[in-house]
Amino acid sequence: MAEQVKRVYRFGKDSQGDNVTEGAASMKGVLGGKGANLAEMANIGLPVPPGFTITCQTCMEYANADNAWPEGALDEIRAYRIDLEERMGKKIGDAADPLLVSVRSGAPMSMPGMMDTVLNLGLNDRSIQGLIAQTDNPRFAWDSYRRFIQMFSNVVIGLDGDLFENAIIAMKQRRGAVSDTDLTAEDLSELVSEFKAIFAQNTSAADYPSLVADGEVRFPQDPTVQLQLAIEAVFGSWNNPRATLYRQKNKIADDLGTAVNVQCMVFGNKGNTSATGVAFTRNPADGTKEFYGDYLVNAQGEDVVAGIRNTSPISELKHVEGLQKAGQELEDVFVLLENHFRDMMDIEFTIEQGKLWMLQTRAGKRTAASALKVAIDMQREGLITKEEAVCRVEPSQLDQLLHPQFDKNARYDVLARGLNASPGAAVGKVVFSAADAVEAAERGEKTVLVRWETTPDDLAGMIAAEGILTSHGGKTSHAAVIARGMGAPCVCGAEALRIDAEKKQAVVAGTDVVLREGDVISLDGTTGIVVLGAVDLVQPELTGDLDTILEWADEFRTLGVRANADNPEDARLSREFGAEGIGLDRTEHMFLGERKQIIQSFILDEDEEIREKAIADLYAAQTGDFYGMFKAMDGLPVIVRLLDPPLHEFLESPRALDVEIARLEASGADARVIAEKRGLLAKIDSFVEANPMLGLRGCRLGIVYPILPVMQVRAIATAAARLKKEGFDPRPEIMIPLVSTVNELAKLREVAQKTIAEVSEAEGVELDLEIGTMIELPRAAVTADEIATQADFFSFGTNDLTQTTFGFSRDDVEGEFIPQYLTEKLLPYNPFATIDPGVAKLVKMGVDLGRQGNPDLKVGVCGEHGGDPDSIHTFHKIGLDYVSCSPYRVPVARLAAAQAALK
Ligand code: PEP
Ligand code: MG
Q1: Quick check: is 264 catalytic?
Q2: Which ligand 1 atom sits nearest the alpha carbon of residue 799?
Q3: pLDDT > 90: what percent of the chain?
Q4: Residue 473's pLDDT band (boundaries 50, 70, 90)?
Q5: By C-alpha distance, which of 294, 737, 759 is closest to 480?
Q6: Ligand 1 centroid vs 797 CA: distance in angstroms?
Q7: Is the Cβ–Cβ distance between 550 and 580 less than 8 Å?
Q8: For ligand 1, is residue 810 a contact (CB within 6 Å)?
Q9: What's the mean pLDDT in 661-678?
Q10: Which of 57, 449, 566, 773 could staple 465 via S-S, CB 3.0–4.6 A?
């Protein structure tokens, strides 16, 4: 007989007060992050409301079987429910003393706010009486029941939340009530009846046969039905669009599933000795060692996150009448949790009539600045090792520190102020809905998403916008938490904004400004400032903490890190960021501006003298370019790649010229001018290729036009010779692109060597320049042993190698069909951003064969993947010598390389 799969694990105490928890923190893959940490908190003696967790694997089995329960699962859940009832001495749905439970999602990776929750489950027309009797608080009981119906209808059945909100508003109007808290027990009981009617009218009998009684849909009274439907809804929420999008953006696998935690309810809304809150053990924005967060007295958890009422800072909690003891206990718990988990933790808690309950803990999401400071402080406090500190900072998060900030010299008037929820500055056009932000981004426009408060449904818009501005909610509101996680600038709780999303405008109280859709604003998420108009932005300076972590990273990494740069300024910047050389200088980037004209006359002119002059001019200009580059990188290698793109890239667009000719003809322009233009068009047309990226480019250019490599190598060698004579230590290396056979490389190597020897002799300086090649074509990778006999180094051009391995045009497919491939999971991620395993195989083959052909061969990578943390792990495993990436990614690559070595 097959071994019985365990699908349910309990946590918390039994009726004797003994811990009967079955799980632990190490079981996140089974119990989800929330379930595993609830178990861990119970195991270390913290007050956790008892409950049980249904495993993530059950969710996936249910989903994979088209929403059918695996055999035996419901029986196991029933047994654990009975066990929970016994532990609590109460029954769900009991008419005298009912047990109420929450049903919450909890995936292995934190996905805040993406999936569903149902609270107060177990209330029905009978158990409400028990709750009234037990609490002696009819208002609280009816409020709990109406919240349950509202949540159940919305989350489980998918009814529009407005149906219920409108009923509440209508009731408040009838009663002349200002806020929800002005409604009496009788009002709420009437609302419960209305809610049940709304439920019955709007729920399909065909979809929910278990809800049909006497031929009509009814709000479920049977707790077993309530519980099963709620669990099914939480399972289903794993595949809702926002959760799916979040996983795609955060590279979380789709087959992990979510666990479901069924847990006894505790109430923060039982009067003024009750409260609820969310907190961090340190400041998640800047890492300061302080208790950070918000709480609300007499409220339920979702009230804090929803930003409906203004919260108070957690540091005040222990001074509030009736909450002192729980407040102090909470601070002790913070310390205990940090010492146990050895990390900055994020906590959800509830105080029910003076008693503290822990509802959740997890490693807190934090900004890059906070991650650095917390890692360094914890290492210095002896809580974690240096290796752990280096692994605690997410490399891609460092981008945040490189976010623009307001220029200190910029002058501006502050339009409004809010909370500095997520650092960095943004400038963009105001949009009032997530959909508008997405549309604008598709048009290439930068926006700032302005919302009352964001909800999980706004995720796509938050990703599309440059920055996020809300008028409500605290630093732990949805907008703040998500923006920090994404590294997007965010100002929240800017209360002066009176937003009318329907009219697409916002009045700014205290001013005569009305913001309309399309108006440009600037916001600074580091200071919480909002400005009308565009403020100049600058790149920030790197903090000391970043330097410290990167120095520590350098102690552990074995991969070298170089930069892709093609001007002295970028070279210097990359050197400041710690680059150990230039891995790719794309020389075509030096042919912009007036240089473009020179190369055009080389390409198009038939007069030999003019062509020679063009080459001489290019030589002079290039010698100056290389002189600057090698000087900026004195003592470090600089790989100069010979000209790579198809020549027509330097020419005017034939289409534009065609249009110009048509216009000239229509306006009756001089026939000679028109004839000249026609001649030019014919020449340009002769360079047009059907498949230019597979055409006359790379080393093929040098073979067809040998004067080009000779000119470039002469310029490189001359610049090096001059610097040597001035006492510098230039280290240029010459790289030949897009080689597919060893013969191409051998031929161009010979040309280069001859040219170097000539310059060496002419300048009277010894020059020993290395010559290598790019591996960008599958044929080069699979014959790398032959190619290596002619190369001192290889640099894998993984942009072209991806293009040529897949047969994907790198200029087109990302805008054309890769998004669909990702949605349909034909590809797990974009192979132009993160190295594809198939392309990586070719890289490995190229490295291994290359080293066979030349044991002294140096190997690196210089495609975009060289700055991508996930790809860096792959390159480390393959055993490359270095990665090369854009200057701003150099810090990211240093950290990722260290983590690759440590993990
Ligand atoms: C590459 O192909 O990976 C590369 C670095 O060269 P380029 O992007 O200039 O084609
Ligand atoms: Mg290339």
Answers
A1: no
A2: 3
A3: 74
A4: confident
A5: 294
A6: 5
A7: no
A8: no
A9: 91
A10: 449
Distance of alpha carbon 72 from alpha carbon 330, whole angstroms: 40
Measured in angstroms, how far is the CA atom of residue 695 from the centroid of ligand 2? 13
Identify the CA nearest to 378 among candidates 279, 289, 280: 289
Side chain identity, residue 662: A
Given ligand 1 and candidates 776, 883, 886, which is best to mutate, with the most ligand atoms within 8 Å of its CB? 776
Give 696-740 pLDDT, tens digit per residue.
Answer: 999 999 999 999 999 999 999 999 999 999 999 999 999 999 999
CB atoms within 10 A of CB 171: 17
Buried b (16+ CB within 10 A) or exposed e, 233-254: bbbbbbebebbebbbeeeebee
Amino acid in the structure at residue 655: R
Atom of ligand 1 nearest to the CA of 798: 3
Task: Name which residue sits closest to atom 1 of ligand 1, judged by CA.
Answer: 797
Can you say whether the dihedral through the CA atoms of 774, 775, 780, 785 is positive or negative? positive
Which residue of 796, 799, 868, 889 sits with most ligand 1 atoms within 8 Å of its CB, as the best mutation to test the pocket?
799
Lowest mean pLDDT among 299-308, 326-335, 445-454: 299-308
588 alpha carbon, distance to own chain's centre: 32
Query: β-pairing, 51-54 with 8-11?
Result: antiparallel
What pTM did the predictor assign? 0.79
Inter-CA distances, 642 with 287, 401, 629, 701, 803, Å:
47, 34, 15, 10, 20
Residue type present at position 573: L
Q: Ligand 1 test: best mutation among 586, 700, 839, 883, most atoms within 8 Å of CB?
A: 586
- For residue 564, give the ligand 1 atom closest to its CA: 5
691-702 confidence digits (pLDDT tens): 888 999 999 999
pLDDT of 821 higher than 60: yes
Decide: 788 and 794 in contact? Cβ < 8 Å: yes
The active-site residue out of 56, 492, 862, 885 is: 862
Catalytic residue, from 478, 865, 873, 876: name it.
478
Tell me the CA–centroid distance for residue 699 and ligand 1, in Å.
13
In the numeric block, which tokens belong to residue 333? 């718990």
3-state SS of 380-392?
HCCCCCHHHHHHC
Q: No. of H helices and E strands in the chain?
A: 33, 35
pLDDT tens digits, 23-73: 999 999 999 999 999 999 999 999 999 999 999 999 999 999 999 999 999
Question: Are 588 and 645 contacting, i.e. CB atoms less than 8 angstroms apart?
Answer: yes
CA 610 to chain centre: 52
Centroid of ligand 2 to alpha carbon of 550 (angstroms): 29
Contact by Cβ (8 Å): 812, 832: no
**How do residues 270-320 score in pLDDT, each as one tens digit?**
889 999 999 999 999 889 999 999 999 988 876 666 656 678 899 899 999
How many whole angstroms separate alpha carbon 9 and alpha carbon 261? Answer: 10
Distance 248 CA to ligand 2 centre (A): 28
Number of Cβ atoms within 10 Å of the Cβ of 689: 13
Annotation says 648 is catalytic = no
| Rounded CA separation 101/498 (Å) | 38
**pLDDT tens-digit map of 539-567:** 766 668 999 999 999 999 999 999 999 98
**In what side-by-side order are the strands of the sheet with 292-297?**
312-313, 292-297, 275-280, 345-352, 355-363
Give CA 803 to chain center in angstroms: 25
CA distances from 286 to 282, 370, 380 (A): 9, 4, 17
- Spatial separation of the C-alpha atoms in residues 645 and 132, rounded to whole Å: 78
CB 53 within 8 A of CB 260: yes
CA–CA gap between residue 339 and residue 715 (Å, rounded): 61
Q: Name residues whose C-beta falls within 8 Å of residue 304's C-beta, 6 or more positions apart in sequence.
A: 276, 277, 278, 294, 295, 296, 311, 474, 476
The residues placing their C-beta within 5 Å of ligand 2, an ion, are 776, 797, 800
